[in-house]
Amino acid sequence: MNSANIELLKRSSCSMKSLVFRCFILVFSIFVLRTVISSFPRSSLLTWRTSNWIGITAASNLQNSITRDKFLEVPQIIWGLNNQKIALARACLTARFLNRTLLMPSLSASLFYKEVDLLEPMAFDKLFNFEKFNDQCNGFVRVGRYSDLVNKSKPYEVLKGSGRKWTKERDLNQLTQCRNESFDYIEVIRISGKNPFLWHDHWPAKDYAKIFECLVVVDEIEKEVAKVISKIKDVGREVSHNSNAPQKKASLDGWQDHHIPYMAVHMRIEKDWMIHCKKVEQRLNINQICSSKEEIIERVSRITAIQQPIVVYLAVADALLEDDSILSGWEDGFVPFEKKRLAVKDVYDKHPYLIQSAIDYEVCSRADIFVGNSFSTFSSLVVLSRTMKSIGMGFTNSCSTEVGYSSYAYNIAEQHGGAKMWMTNMSAPSLSSISYGTNSISCYSNWNT
């Protein structure tokens, strides 16, 4: 063997020894790392995992499809229609965060929200179309039936905390723990405690908007909505004919020729609202919440974009109304109607509160012009719906453009004294301003996809 071959063998031997030594170091390092990790308590690891979720938009981490064999159950949903819609959406987004299907929740047909034993339950599919919801929200959230359950085992109870110590971070920590692999075998997680409307909010406004778009009323209620709108337009045709005013031609997709426009005003002057709004004004030290009948009429009459004459539908809770003169005091060109004068009171009276409110919501959301109160959940969700429709038509700015779904807040005056133009800020990080009201509104909607 020559000297060159001997040198080559030496180098090969060194390389092998080096490779073996590196492998040994790698195995030893893995062993040490596992030992160190196992020395930490499980709770410490969970805290570390949880801390990495805080401050991150929860929905952005949910790319997987919603599982159909694991479920979330929530308490009966209560309060007014739009608080119930928010609670329903929040429950859906909670189920989405946990990668679970929301078991079809029970709504509340009545408004006796304090006396829980007096609540009249109403199934989700008695108000909203179950199939259309899952079809339109496919891949985002899902609602399931109790008949979908397989093993019928006892649900795993998760108690929602309450009070000042139950912070948004603690709430998200709890939800994150329920995402742990150890929960994968559990068919149903049942959340008990607080009403879903009062849960902490971890999701942006556009996630809620997506769910609200999927909430389509059942055919029976849609027929009632059509009756009311038909009555409004019949009156509008008569008013237009008597005034010899030209009827508006179609200018936007979906509008019929000779369209008969109407305005809807959510006139919040009921006795329960006036008590509530005065307390909120005192607490927030502002005077832009309560509005009298006279102030509402004056600010509506100063909206410059209105083509007169126009029928004005007044959406008001008749049973709580102390002032029965809401039809008086309107200027020429504004023709006000409420349920009784419109001869549709019987349409409402045969239904429980929740459905009555749902009919009014649809009538207001489909109006050519809507005027409401920015501290009312009802008005705020109507404007959100109309903002989404405007965005779907390519409009994110209604400041100087006739978008077809223009909205105004009569509790906030523009410089000329009219009601302020209003679009929902769709880039808002939460639904707080809609849930509790705001006097910071504009006619521009930010939309960050």
List keywords for this structure.
449 residues; alpha/beta; Rossmann fold; 2 domains; six-stranded mixed β-sheet; five-stranded parallel β-sheet; globular
How is this structure best summarized?
The chain is an alpha/beta fold.
The proportion of strand residues reads 5-15%
Spans of 5+ residues with little confidence (pLDDT < 50)?
2-21, 35-63, 249-257
Query: What oligomeric arrangement do these chains adopt?
Result: single chain
Q: Which geometry do the CA atoms define?
A: globular
Sheet with most strands:
6 strands, mixed
Structural topology:
Layout lengths: L2 H36 L3 H10 L19 E3 L7 H17 L3 E3 L2 E3 L12 E3 L6 H7 L6 E2 L11 E4 L8 H10 L10 E5 L12 H10 L4 H25 L18 E5 L4 H14 L8 H9 L8 E6 L18 E4 L7 H5 L3 H13 L3 E4 L4 H16 L13 E8 L5 E3 L10 H5 L13
Helix pairs in contact: 2-5, 3-6, 7-11, 11-12
Tell me about this structure.
With 449 residues, this protein is an alpha/beta fold. The chain folds into 2 domains: 58-210, Rossmann fold, CATH 3.40.50; 219-436, Rossmann fold, CATH 3.40.50. 39% of the residues lie in helices and 12% in strands. The protein is built from 13 helices and 13 strands. The protein has helices at 3-38, 42-51, 81-97, 130-136, 168-177, 205-214, 219-243, 271-284, 293-301, 345-349, 353-365, 377-392, 432-436, and strands spanning 71-73, 101-103, 106-108, 121-123, 143-144, 156-159, 188-192, 262-266, 310-315, 334-337, 369-372, 406-413, 419-421. The chain has a 6-stranded mixed beta sheet, with helices on both faces. β11 (369-372), α12 and β12 (406-413) form a beta-alpha-beta unit. α2 (42-51) crosses α5, α3 crosses α6 and α7 (219-243) crosses α11. The radius of gyration is 29 Å and the shape is globular.
